[in-house]
Design a protein that fits this description.
Layout (H helix, E strand, L loop, with lengths): L26 H32 L16 E4 L2 E7 L4 E9 L16 E3 L5 E3 L9 E4 L2 E10 L4 E7 L8 E6 L3 H48 L1
Antiparallel strand pairs: 1-9, 2-8, 3-7, 3-9, 4-5, 4-8, 6-7
């Protein structure tokens, strides 16, 4: 006795069709790339700020680009010569000797054989025989300016400044406010830290951009393969 074959089972209309392959998302590769670019922009901003801070710390403002007295100069006089200048009591001032850049050997620092003397309004004679807070050397317009002395004004008023001979043709002396060492030192160390920050941001940003782009390309190819399949 034979068993009749079972009739074929018709497909269930309620059954869901097989799921289509899921297309990989580009969201995270895009986010990583954008974040990397933002970090690189931050590194660029930090680099500009660090460079500006360094230039501000080491700039003396004794000479302009064409070799004229800079914005920091309160008084200038030939060496030998004299000048008048108004000073404030208790303030510290620095004396800079300015000579042609070829007037001395590379290993020979320009200097004055005698101190610059200042006659205070009271008649007191002040010698600029102290050490500047920051010894500066700047070159501009074919001239070299070197810090050679400093002093503190004993009173407010107009001083007569007497400059000795420098023994060098076309030499002159500039008087400026003295730079304090502590802020200068802090600026230099801030610049050093700024360099490390720039390098760190640049490393992180570059790594994020490269990783994001590679990830983006891989995901894009996977999406194209899914769409073509």
């Amino acid at each position: 006795m034979s068993v009749p074959p079972h009739p074929p089972v018709p497909p269930d209309p309620a059954a869901s069709p097989p799921a289509a392959p899921r297309r990989p998302s580009l969201t995270w590769p895009v986010v990583l790339t954008v974040v990397g670019l933002l970090v690189l922009v931050a590194a660029l901003v930090a680099a500009v700020g660090t460079a500006g801070a360094f230039v501000g710390a080491v700039r003396s403002d004794v000479l302009t680009s064409d070799g004229q007295p800079g914005v920091a100069v309160l008084a200038a006089a030939p060496a030998p010569g004299a000048a008048r200048v108004h000073l404030t009591e208790g303030e510290r001032y620095a004396v800079h000797l300015v000579v042609p850049s070829g007037a001395s050997r590379e290993d020979d620092r320009p200097d004055l054989p005698e101190d610059v003397l200042l006659l205070a309004p009271s008649g007191e004679v002040v010698a600029a025989d102290g050490s500047p807070g920051v010894t500066m050397t700047s070159t501009a317009g074919g001239l070299v300016a070197v810090s050679v002395g400093a002093f503190t004004a004993p009173q407010t008023g107009t001083y007569e400044m007497a400059v000795p001979s420098a023994g060098v043709p076309d030499a002159w002396v500039a008087l400026t406010p003295d730079k304090e060492f502590a802020p200068f030192f802090a600026s230099i160390w801030g610049t050093v830290l700024g360099v490390f920050v720039v390098l760190g941001l640049g490393f992180v940003g570059s790594g994020a951009v490269i990783t994001g782009v590679v990830w983006w390309v891989v995901r894009a190819r996977a999406r194209a393969a899914v769409a073509g399949g």
